[in-house]
């Protein structure tokens, strides 16, 4: 029986299938890399990836974490003073405006802030309203930047599942692809930070229990989601017929190649073909 995992000695370049609409998920570890508030250091390259694709006639939606990290830089003692969840919700409220401002500085076209909760997406009426709004924003040429509404929702703060939110959004907007920018090169057979024998996985054709077991924990002190949530997101996207691509958002060469539809990372195939 053939294995669902293609293993290579190192991540090799792959040409990606054509796509017209995608979701890009960017985590806190890329936007607040030094733990001291938001930084354009890695966001600039990701914004250039978005711009290159917009100029090519494609559409993108960004799902961006970072509000809590931005708020912590404004009031660094706030998280110590109150109840953990309430304090983080307050930090998110403080930092959300800065997060949107960070993205807007990179684009001439308008950036639209969209705050969602998982309850919004579980309720059919609100789901359809969100779908219609995002569709209209894309039609108008705006760039939607979505975040979990951390001020009223505890799901993301507890579980770090903006990765899963990105997968749900990808299905919501009928995306062809989900790009997840992370702080490592892709999926490995083990945590490459602690295991020198970890092997890079260029391609995953099926998210089996064996593959899920390869996921480690959170790789960053500012982010709350680890590789496990990224694979869970890929499974959700795959169930909707959407491929997922994991890549290192800190590597400028990797991001520039991705703008030319060349992946140096992990391609996770969809579980089914889209109709």
UniProtKB/TrEMBL annotation:
GO terms for biological process: amino acid biosynthetic process. One of its GO terms (cellular component) is cytosol. Keywords: Amino-acid biosynthesis, ATP-binding, Cytoplasm, Kinase, Nucleotide-binding, Proline biosynthesis, Transferase. Pfam families: AA_kinase. SUPFAM superfamilies: Carbamate kinase-like. Signal peptide: none annotated. InterPro entries: AceGlu_kinase-like_sf (IPR036393), Asp/Glu/Uridylate_kinase (IPR001048), G5K_ProB (IPR041739), Glu/AcGlu_kinase (IPR001057), Glu_5kinase (IPR011529), Glu_5kinase/COase_Synthase (IPR005715), Glutamate_5-kinase_CS (IPR019797). Coiled coil: none annotated. GO terms for molecular function: ATP binding; glutamate 5-kinase activity. Residues 21-248 form the Aspartate/glutamate/uridylate kinase domain. CDD domains: AAK_G5K_ProB. PANTHER family: GLUTAMATE 5-KINASE, ISOPENTENYL PHOSPHATE KINASE. NCBIfam families: proB (TIGR01027). This is Gamma-glutamyl kinase.
């Amino acid at each position: 029986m053939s294995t669902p995992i293609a293993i290579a000695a190192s991540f090799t370049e792959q040409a990606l299938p054509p796509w017209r609409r995608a979701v890009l998920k960017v985590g806190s570890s890329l936007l607040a890399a030094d733990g001291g508030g938001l930084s354009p250091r890695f966001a600039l390259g990701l914004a250039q990836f978005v711009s290159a694709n917009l100029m090519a006639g494609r559409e993108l939606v960004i799902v961006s974490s970072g509000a809590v990290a931005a708020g912590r830089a404004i009031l660094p003692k706030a998280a110590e003073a109150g109840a953990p969840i309430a304090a983080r919700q307050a930090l998110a409220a403080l930092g959300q405006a800065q997060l949107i401002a960070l993205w807007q500085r990179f684009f001439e076209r308008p950036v639209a802030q969209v705050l969602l909760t998982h309850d919004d997406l579980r309720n059919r009426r609100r789901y359809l309203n969100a779908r219609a709004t995002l569709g209209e924003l894309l039609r108008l040429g705006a760039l939607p930047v979505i975040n979990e509404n951390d001020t009223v929702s505890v799901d993301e703060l507890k579980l770090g599942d903006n990765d899963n939110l990105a997968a749900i959004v990808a299905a919501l907007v009928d995306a062809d692809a989900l790009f997840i920018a992370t702080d490592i090169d892709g999926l490995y057979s083990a945590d490459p930070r602690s295991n020198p024998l970890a092997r890079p996985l260029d391609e995953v054709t099926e998210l089996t229990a064996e593959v899920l077991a390869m996921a480690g924990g959170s790789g960053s002190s500012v982010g709350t989601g680890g590789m496990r949530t990224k694979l869970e997101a890929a499974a959700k996207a795959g169930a909707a017929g959407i491929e997922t691509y994991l890549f290192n958002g800190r590597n400028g060469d990797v991001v520039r190649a991705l703008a030319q539809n060349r992946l140096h990372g992990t391609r996770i195939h969809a579980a089914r073909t889209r109709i």
